[in-house]
Recover the amino acids of this structure.
């Protein structure tokens, strides 16, 4: 990454205060309903596109099962690396199933788990953006030429599945080479959204984050990018080898009717379609 692009990662201070409450992504957040009273917490690592959906889901699970859960969010590629290095996670929800399947093939998980959802990407804009909420990216191409575009945020394609799909969509639209000087990279899709709403004219991020109520309050507009423009975001859950029984209980909850309904409310497609 060039120094110029690295400088663009720093949000505008005035806008940072506006979006901090909605988009802050701590390294680890403990679910709020159980605490130590529930015993040793279940440690769950999840792709950043699940920040809001999984938090809602886990709160339901805790109330029902009386099990404390600690959530850690990040890019799927980085989480997979952390698991290989011995990070003490019990469950891994990946935004791209290949990271979960690689761990399974290495014998680090209890089987291959299952697909819990399919994700979508969207062009998201802050209030007052000079861009149009156009999922075909036609206006984005015009904005490169006429000077309206200064910065566009995406997750890092090297390890973030949503960043890789954003790259694929920009390639499909014929914009990848031309847009290089304007790109800023988040370490994960949630950070990319923070940049999109605080220091850029927009970003290509996950629909699940865009649909979260706290984010909706900060949006100027958004539009879905055609699913055919990128390889599918098949999202898989795996139980890490040696996890306690509660990990299997949470996995069953994710795949059950309540979990599926919560994921659907955040724009995730069902596994079969």
């Amino acid at each position: 990454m060039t120094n110029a692009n690295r400088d663009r990662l720093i949000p505008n201070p005035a806008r940072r205060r506006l979006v901090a409450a909605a988009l802050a992504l701590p390294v680890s957040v403990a679910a709020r309903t159980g605490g130590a009273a529930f015993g040793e917490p279940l440690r769950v690592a999840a792709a950043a596109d699940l920040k809001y959906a999984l938090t809602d889901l886990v709160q339901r699970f805790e109330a029902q099962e009386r099990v404390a859960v600690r959530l850690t969010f990040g890019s799927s590629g980085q989480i997979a690396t952390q698991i290989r290095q011995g990070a003490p996670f019990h469950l891994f929800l990946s935004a791209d199933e290949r990271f979960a399947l690689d761990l399974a093939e290495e014998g680090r998980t209890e089987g291959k788990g299952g697909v819990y959802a399919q994700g979508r990407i969207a062009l998201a804009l802050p209030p007052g953006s000079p861009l149009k909420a156009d999922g075909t990216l036609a206006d984005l191409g015009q904005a490169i030429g006429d000077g309206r575009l200064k910065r566009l945020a995406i997750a890092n394609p090297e390890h973030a599945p949503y960043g890789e799909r954003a790259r694929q969509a920009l390639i499909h639209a014929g914009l990848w080479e031309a847009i290089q000087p304007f790109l800023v990279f988040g370490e994960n899709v949630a950070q990319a959204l923070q940049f999109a709403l605080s220091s850029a004219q927009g970003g290509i991020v996950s629909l699940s984050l865009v649909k979260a109520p706290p984010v909706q309050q900060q949006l100027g507009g958004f539009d879905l990018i055609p699913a055919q423009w990128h390889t599918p975001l098949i999202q898989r859950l795996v139980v890490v080898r040696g996890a306690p029984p509660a990990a299997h209980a949470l996995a069953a909850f994710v795949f059950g009717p309540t979990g599926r309904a919560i994921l659907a409310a955040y724009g995730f497609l069902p596994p079969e379609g």
Notes: The CA atoms of residues 83 and 89 lie 7 Å apart. The first strand starts at residue 28 and ends at 30. The chain has two domains: 3-22+119-229, 25-118+234-265. The longest helix spans residues 51-65.
